[in-house]
């Protein structure tokens, strides 16, 4: 009887130890193993929202604008390039077309005003960009009305291909923009219709490129404007002339 009692006690102890280990393993697993059910990659809309924060938050960047299939008899901007700081202020060159005439002019915009050195002029003078069908740099680069506001206004954004941009890989996001948004930002189009848009975003949500395609000019079904953004974080000295 003593032997059986001893064997029973040993068996009970072993069973209890087994259950205890199993219970601790199960509980420990629940505490240390991360759950994946709530971890989802950001949607295209969320990526665009984060990209707006990045471009709005940077001290400055370098900007390029290139138009394709701009009607030869229309007034508008053909291309442009320059430096932007967050004040906002812009210093660079814009190539504009007014009817059959075109010119590349140095431009400075700051404090809500824009100056340009027109062809054959001795110095810069204040101008109204609307006169030349060009976007006002003071608005184009502002946080409230500028190019960054296009990102959250993009309809039905979806991820596209991943492309190489120098040493970086960018994620493309495509969608559509209402004509009213394009008119407000780029000062082109009649404010109606729909435009297709494609963005290129880096892994840290820098906007590297924006391509907008649509009816920018009356009687022309499709004109393309490509915008590129580089040198995030740079600052330059931009003063009124």
TrEMBL record:
InterPro entries: LolA/LolB/LppX, LppX/LprAFG. The keyword Lipoprotein applies. It is found in: Cell envelope. Residues 25-45 are annotated as: Disordered. Residues 1-22 form the signal peptide. One of its GO terms (cellular component) is cell envelope. PROSITE patterns: PROKAR_LIPOPROTEIN. Belongs to the LppX/LprAFG lipoprotein family. This is Lipoprotein LprG.
